[in-house]
Amino acid sequence: MALTSEEGGHVADLCLLTAKPVIYVCNVDEKSAVSGNHYSARFKESVSGEKAEVLIIAAKAEAEIAELESPEDRLAFLSEIGLEEPGVNKLIRSAFSILNLEVFFTAGPKEVRAWTIRKGSTAPVAAGVIHSDLERGFIRAEVMKYSDFIFLGSEAACRDAGKLLIEGKNYIVKDGDILHIRFNV
User: Fold this and answer.
1) What does each C-alpha distance from 8 to 2, 58, 102, 185 come to in angstroms?
2) What is the pTM of this model?
3) Which pLDDT belongs to residue 163?
4) 19-45: per-residue pLDDT in tens?
5) Angle, helices 59-67/71-80, rounded to nearest 10 degrees
6) What local confidence, expressed as pLDDT, does residue 26 receive?
7) Among residues 92, 113, 89, which one has the least CA distance to residue 101?
8) The CATH number of 101-183 is which of 1.20.1740.10, 3.40.50.970, 3.10.20.30, 3.40.50.720?
9) Which long-range contacts (CB under 8 A, 24 or more apart) does 127-133 make?
10) So what's the pLDDT on residue 18?
11) 14-98 adopts what CATH topology?
């Protein structure tokens, strides 16, 4: 049901399932994996008034693809049925989009980690996802863009090219940023 922003505020505390974002996944046969079939088209039409996303996935083919060991075989199988990527990739992207999420990375000598945050989060909030002490004692974040890091090949190369930025508390973390958090507790 359509609610005004005031009405939405009143029912937000109820955490209604009907108010949650929805992704429908239509499981189709292999030959319908690219554009769906008659049934998936009718389903899309039936939910067109909802603020929902509809994905077409051939689950049996996806399971067969997942069993293949080499990436080349997977790509060959995908192209054989007319797909460019596995359906699980579409599902993950769709979930991140509908939930308004993005990822940033931290990297050190022992590990690289991905962290999930809401879009529009500031650097201290992102630091708080790692540990509350990092948010509390946040000083600054050293930021590299993922694309710059891949293109230049290392943190040192990014620093030398001027692509390592020093950002403060108001910096809005972007999807794919690589952060090094400076803090003092």
Assistant:
1) 9, 36, 25, 39
2) 0.79
3) 94
4) 888 999 999 999 998 989 999 999 999
5) 150
6) 96
7) 92
8) 3.10.20.30
9) 127/179, 127/181, 127/183, 130/106, 130/181, 133/183, 133/185
10) 81
11) Rossmann fold (3.40.50)
